[in-house]
Automatic annotation (TrEMBL):
InterPro entries: IGPD_sf, ImidazoleglycerolP_deHydtase, ImidazoleglycerP_deHydtase_CS, Ribosomal_Su5_D2-typ_SF. Pfam families: IGPD. It is found in: Cytoplasm. Signal peptide: none annotated. It catalyses: D-erythro-1-(imidazol-4-yl)glycerol 3-phosphate = 3-(imidazol-4-yl)-2-oxopropyl phosphate + H2O. GO terms for biological process: L-histidine biosynthetic process. It is an enzyme of class 4 (lyase). One of its GO terms (molecular function) is imidazoleglycerol-phosphate dehydratase activity. GO terms for cellular component: cytoplasm. NCBIfam families: PRK00951.2-1, PRK00951.2-4, PRK00951.2-5, PRK00951.2-6. This is Imidazoleglycerol-phosphate dehydratase. Keywords: Amino-acid biosynthesis, Cytoplasm, Histidine biosynthesis, Lyase. Belongs to the imidazoleglycerol-phosphate dehydratase family. The gene is hisB.
Length: 195
């Protein structure tokens, strides 16, 4: 079974394309025009062992909001399409990831029921060329369009770069765990028979 997908989305504000191989080796080519966001998506792919290509152009003369949110939408849809009917996946994933003084926890359920619980307070308004509040916006768009129940909690940290990095690495690791195929699972991991 090949678990790959490509999704494109074009609006008056952005044009985003993502290609994903769930069963990859962590290779990424990311170009969104927002350097810090590119760095975070590279970390996400590397630590999730996903092969991921993302290209995005957007109205960065306004700010990064539309580009980052729309990338979350497209990436969420790409995961949903690549996983298909979710046959045989482990469904749940949890990861605690330290990054120097910061520690993040991500727990998720590929349930078909989108939800984001986000607890993280960044000490600065911007991390590089990205508004720190857009971390939450990306995660919300991703969770909604991937059909994932996503809980993100930054337990502690001081350096905003490290804090965001721990979150994106933990997201990758938790998704890697949840998307793994398990031969013991007959159909989907649900008493309902569907996810």
């Amino acid at each position: 079974m090949t678990r790959t997908a490509t999704v494109e989305r074009q609006t008056a504000e952005t044009q985003v394309k993502a290609t994903l191989n769930v069963d990859g080796a962590g290779r990424a080519e990311i170009a969104t025009g927002i350097g810090f966001f590119d760095h975070m998506l590279n970390l996400f792919a590397k630590h999730g062992l996903f092969d991921l290509t993302v290209t995005a152009t957007g109205d960065l003369f306004v700010d990064g909001h539309h580009t980052i949110e729309d990338t979350g939408i497209v990436l969420g849809r790409t995961f949903a399409r690549a996983l298909g009917d979710k046959q045989g996946i482990r469904r749940y994933g949890t990861a605690f990831v330290p990054m120097d003084e910061a520690l993040a926890m991500v727990a998720l359920d590929i349930s078909g029921r989108p939800y984001l619980h986000f607890e993280a307070a960044f000490p600065v308004e911007r991390i590089g060329d990205m508004a720190s509040e857009l971390v939450e916006e990306f995660l919300r768009a991703f969770a909604v369009h991937a059909g994932i129940t996503l809980h993100v909690r930054l337990l502690y940290g001081r350096n905003a770069h490290h804090m965001a990095e721990a979150i994106f690495k933990a997201l990758g690791r938790a998704l890697d765990e949840a998307t793994r195929l398990d031969g013991r699972i007959d159909g989907v991991l649900s008493t309902k028979g569907t996810l």
